[in-house]
Amino acid sequence: MSFVLTIPGPGARARALAVGLTATAALAIIVGPSLAPRGTLAIDGSATPEHSISVTGTGRVTLSPDVADVRLGVSIARRTVKAARDDAATAMTAVIAALKHAGVADADLTTSTLSLQPQYDYSSNGSAPRITGYQFSNAVTAIVRHLDAVGDAIDGAIAAGATSLDGVTFRVDDETKAEAQARSAAMGEAKTKADALAAAAGVTINGVISIAETIAPTPYPMPYSALDSGAKSVPTPIQAGMNEVTVSVSVVYRIP
What we know:
Oligomer: single chain
Radius of gyration: 38 Å
Strand order of the largest sheet: 3-4-2-5
Strand content: 25-35%
CATH class of the largest domain: Alpha Beta
Low-confidence stretches: 1-49, 220-231
């Protein structure tokens, strides 16, 4: 590339000025683009922006639960800490013995709550509340692996001195196979949707950009009302029902 700059006058000084201006102009043209501020990012015209189809799919597998989580406890109020602790310990020892008698293994018994709280009398007008006693609470979560023994485990624990039944949750101990089946069904549904959308748009799918998975959480135990174990009653009826394993996926497919 050449640059021509004509300067009037035949003198040497004029010719030197012409050369200097020519060099300056050339330098400005060569260096200028690299020093100029860039308002936007340059985009390679040969690179086509990526096109995609985003879809979701859900797979569900229904299966029978094989274990139950039972949460039972005792809560004892006494005037002193020692009396509350001692009586709660005695009651919980009997509850644990009843659960073991129903077939619950030591490894499936876990202490879930252990608390000591003061009890106050707020009836004094204008005076600070005073401590009248202490409440000691102890709760255990038991995994019952034979569902036909769930009712017996609950009834035995209540008869032994349990004062609370916070909930029963039925679940499948190992959901690995069910999750794999639900995942496969979810991906199949997502692919079916993507194929239909691509066909309607007159394009074809040529790859997967990303996959995100969500597995439905296991439900938490539902609380029950306080129980009265003073009278002999009919056995507690237990219905395990069915469990559902749900897997949802969000898939982004690449299209031309």
